What does this fold into?
Amino acid sequence: MSVQPVYALPFHITFLIFIIFSLVGWLSEVLYVGIFFEHKFVNRGFLHGPICPIYGFGGLTILLLPQSLYSTWGMLFCASMLFGTIVEYLSSWILEKLFHTRWWDYSHYKFNIRGRVCLLNSLLFGVLGVVIIHFVQPYVMWYLSLFPEFVLKLSADIIAIALTVDLLITVRRLVDFSVSLEKLRALKEKYGAEFTRALDQLQPKIRNIESFVHRFPTLKSLNYKEELDLLKQRIKNVKSKFWNKKPPKA
It folds into this structure.
C-alpha cells in the first residue's frame, strides 16, 4: 500500500492529521476507562480539550517510518511496536523532568521498563500501527481532500490557537499543582496532628490536584510523594463516605 510520507505533506495537513490522531486517541482512552473501570465519563487527556497529544505524535512517528517497512504487516507491526514504545518512554521522561511528576506508572504490569512502558502497551502500539497505515490514514486523507484548501488552512490556524491557549492554561495549573503540594508539606510540618483541619485552608487548590488525580490514578510526585499519597487517601476517604452515606429517614 502506498502511503504518502508526512514530510511530503503541507504543514497544515500534517498538523490536522496530528489533531485527528490525538482526538481518536482521547476518545479511545475515555471509552476504555469509562466502560471497563470508572463506568462514567473521565477526561483522560493531559489538556482540557478532547485530545491526547501522545497519540498524535505516535501516529506521526509511524507515518515517518520508511516505506519499505509497509511491505508486510509483520515488519510494520514490529516497527510500530518499537517506535511507539520509544515515544511513550520519552513522553514519560520529559514530563517527569519538566514537572517532577510521574503521570502514569506501569510498575504493576509484567515486563515493564521503569514503570514508563510495558509489554502490553507495546503490543497495542504494534496493532495500532498496522491499523493506521492500512485502514485509518487512507480515509483521513480522503476526508481532508473533501474540503477546500483555504478551509483546511483556516481550521488548522484556529485549532492551533485553541491548542496553544489550552497548553498555557494547563501549564499554569501544573505550576499551581506543584505549589499546592509544597504548601501541603508546609502545613503538615507546622500543624502536625492538626494537619487534617489545617488542610481545609487549601481546599480551592486541592480541587486542582484532585482533577489530576482523578484523570491519572497512578500519578506520582517525585518531590512530594508523602503529601500526594496522603491527599489521595483523603480523596478516597471522602468518596467512600459519600457512597456509603445512608439517606435520611422520612
Q: What stands out?
A: Residues 149-191 form the longest helix (43 residues). The first strand starts at residue 101 and ends at 102.
